[in-house]
Each structure stands twice: as structure tokens, then as C-alpha cells.
Design goal:
Blueprint (H helix, E strand, L loop, with lengths): L2 H14 L3 H10 L5 E6 L15 E7 L3 H6 L1 H5 L5 E4 L13 E7 L8 H11 E12 L5 H17 L9 H7 L2 E10 L8 E9 L1
Parallel strand pairs: 1-2, 1-4, 2-3, 4-5
Antiparallel strand pairs: 5-7, 6-7
């Protein structure tokens, strides 16, 4: 890991993912989580302030990045909810099947190398009747914006921890074995190649 990846990139990602438009999206979806929650890509803990402590029993966070986890220390200390970290990737979740009542994934599918594989793992560990809650940026509907997403991807990945700006989120959900129960989509404030968002809920197909 180079100097940028070790020292600079965690600060850049934490700052970008805590901007007001993204925080607003977190505020929309995170309070829907309940029971035992598996949060994929817990990172620096940007979702923690938005959980409803009266509904959530425990948070199990998946994240391989020690630097991002270290940045979550203060946010974890302010949360009344028990938090456990599993320091591995989303493609291999070391939990028994039917463990979680809710799986939460926000602004994370863009960085997981095998996003569909990770979604299948999320499906495996979710209890029957449980809910996947998501908010992700991804593929824009307009062809000229998608061209810009393709153009900037090689450079943006280096700056933003492997982020793919134009992933087809609905397609990935379907291929991962999920049936969308509600989904909103649209641009949030910011550069259009980076700000087309999909958010909602899904259940096991």
C-alpha cells in the first residue's frame, strides 16, 4: 500500500462520502434497518448516526480497510448500538446463513470487485423475510453521461479507492438474487457522472 492509499485516500473517501447530498441519502435509508444489521462497507462509520437505536439490536460491519475502520472510532463511541467488525470483503462473509434481519449497503457496491458475488453472499446471510436496504450511485440513464462515466473511470478508481462511477445497480441486484420491493432513482447534487443514485429496498427473489 502506497503513501496515497494509506494516508490520503481514506481522508478523501471519508470527506466525499460525508457531503450533504450523500448524508441526506443516508438519512433516507438507514433508519429502515432493524434487528441484527449486517452493514456492508461500514468504513468510517458514516451511517452510524442515522440508525434508530430503538429498532436495531446489533450492527455487524464488514470492511477490509483498517485505515477506514480506525477513522470510525469516534463515531462508534457515540453510538448506543453494539457494533462488531468483520474485517473481510463482501464477497466472503464469515457468518452462518440466515444471520441478519437487515442487510444495509450504501455507496459500497461501486468498489467491490465482484459486486454480484457480494450480493449473493448478502442474500445467503439474510433471514427469510429480511430486507436489503440500499443506496448506491451508478449508471446514468443518458448515453452522453454514461460515456463520461466510462472516460473518467480509470482515473476515478485511482483517486477514490477503486470506485466504479457507472455500475448498473438494478442489473446487479437482479443477478445477485434480489427482488426489488421499492426503488427510487435520480441525480443528487454534484457532477452528473458521479451522482446518479439508486435507493430502496429488496427481498430474496
Amino acid at each position: 500500500m502506497g503513501f496515497y492509499d494509506h494516508h490520503i485516500m481514506p481522508r478523501v473517501v471519508d470527506f466525499a462520502c460525508s457531503l450533504k447530498p450523500i448524508s441526506y441519502q443516508r438519512r433516507l435509508v438507514v433508519p429502515q434497518a432493524q434487528g441484527v444489521v449486517l452493514e456492508i462497507g461500514i468504513g468510517s462509520g458514516l451511517n452510524l448516526a442515522f440508525y434508530d437505536p430503538s429498532k436495531v439490536k446489533k450492527i455487524i460491519g464488514v470492511d477490509p480497510d483498517d485505515q477506514m475502520w480506525a477513522r470510525s472510532e469516534r463515531r462508534r463511541s457515540l453510538s448506543p448500538i453494539p457494533i462488531e467488525r468483520i474485517g473481510l470483503s463482501g464477497e466472503e462473509i464469515p457468518l452462518e446463513k440466515n444471520t441478519a434481519d437487515t442487510v444495509l449497503v450504501t455507496y459500497t457496491l461501486c468498489t467491490i470487485p465482484n459486486a454480484v458475488g457480494a450480493l449473493k453472499e448478502m442474500r445467503r446471510v439474510l433471514k427469510p423475510g429480511g430486507t436489503l436496504v440500499f443506496s448506491e450511485h451508478g449508471e446514468a440513464p443518458e448515453a452522453h453521461i454514461r460515456k463520461w462515466q466510462d472516460r473518467i473511470e480509470p482515473y476515478w478508481k485511482k483517486i477514490a479507492g477503486g470506485c466504479h462511477p457507472g455500475r448498473p445497480i438494478p442489473k446487479f441486484l437482479s443477478e445477485g438474487g434480489w427482488s426489488v420491493t421499492r426503488m427510487d432513482q435520480g441525480y443528487i447534487p454534484g457532477p452528473k457522472p458521479l451522482t446518479y443514485n439508486y435507493w430502496g429496498t429488496a427481498e430474496k427473489a
